[in-house]
Amino acid sequence: MLTDEPGQDAYKASNPGISAASPRRTGGDLVQLISPEGERISHPEFDLWVSDVTDEQLCSLYEDMVVIRRIDAEATALQRQGELALWPPLLGQEASQIGSGRALRDDDFVFPSYRDNGVAYCRGVEPTDLVRAWRGNASSGWDPYRHNIATQQIIIGSQSLHATGYAMGIQHDGADSVAVALFGDGATSEGDVNEAMVFAASFQVPVVFICQNNHWAISEPVRIQSHIQIADRASGFGIPSMRVDGNDVLAVLAVTRIALDRARKGGGPTFIEAVTYRMGPHTTADDPTRYRDANELEDWAAKDPIARLKALLRTKGLLTEEVEARTQAKADEVARSLRSGVINMPDPAPLDLFKHVYSTPNSWIERQKDHYSRYLESFSGSTQEGAL
């Protein structure tokens, strides 16, 4: 299992300007450890943060990205076939999600957006649970406290406030876990994200803000939203930031580890801008050909996160037929499980609507439940036993 711990002491000894207490402000520099062609780029300031990543773990990161791309493709197909109401594809953003997700400790708590299914996969959420809400089967697909990841947030950017509040609780408890908020470039124009950064900076709480700059907030290009690099927005709040090649899983892993380490040691919040690209539609209800130049998509396809890691593995002689076959078999099995789970998912009972609204008994909800139960009885003449 990858964590954020290895390499810290050696890193801080050789790079005092990028210690946990004072991370490097990269400005216009884009942290990159694997080129689009799959070449391993040496970067003394960041190499030590991934020095523990073995060849086997590189292959594991590759498998993770292949599997979540397959989950994404299968969910998209299920929506097109009428099995899901909607789906927000993550195609092209696999490295941003796997790199950050695999840097986390079990006791860290994640606050994701609706697109962060790769991070949820890293936290152990079952593929079928990723789509329960999109099928209209449940308000949430999983128990947040079992996986230490909140339910996916549809309201743009509001999870950043939740993350900051949770981080304030961590600080109050004296723990060294970290809250992590993930959102897109468009969310940085929302009041919630800005308010979250104000509080995070004021109280120096252990929170990491990860912005996946995929260049499009639905049909709004990032160049319209921000006339400076998005990472530069954080400096106005006194929050140090880093820009990373979001299609480079190793670089994302490194910068996330740096931010987590800083937060654990009382250094406060960090803002990460992962520069990536949304290769598919905003959701399956969107048609990106109406606003996006095909040449732009072609340019970014050449920077595909899976293709570049695959090229590196080939160069290192790690992508054997056995590894390829094992990876493909895992992706196929997960896809089969997802499809079977969706098609055979039982419908919720009518009175399930009133479950989990409040954590403790509530007379207002109980009264509504009683009224609705008696309404149902008027049709059948009997109570909905299976739903009580």
Automatic annotation (TrEMBL):
Domain Dehydrogenase E1 component as annotated: residue spans: 65-332
Region (Disordered): 1-28
Gene Ontology molecular-function annotations: magnesium ion binding; pyruvate dehydrogenase (acetyl-transferring) activity
Cofactor section: thiamine diphosphate
This protein's UniProt keywords: Oxidoreductase, Pyruvate, Thiamine pyrophosphate
Gene3D superfamilies membership: 3.40.50.970
GO biological process: branched-chain amino acid catabolic process
EC number from the UniProt entry: 1.2.4.1
InterPro entries the record matches: Alpha-ketoacid_DH_E1_comp, DH_E1, PdhA/BkdA, THDP-binding
Pfam family, one: E1_dh
SUPFAM superfamilies for the chain: Thiamin diphosphate-binding fold (THDP-binding)
Enzyme class: oxidoreductase
Designated name of the protein: Pyruvate dehydrogenase E1 component alpha subunit
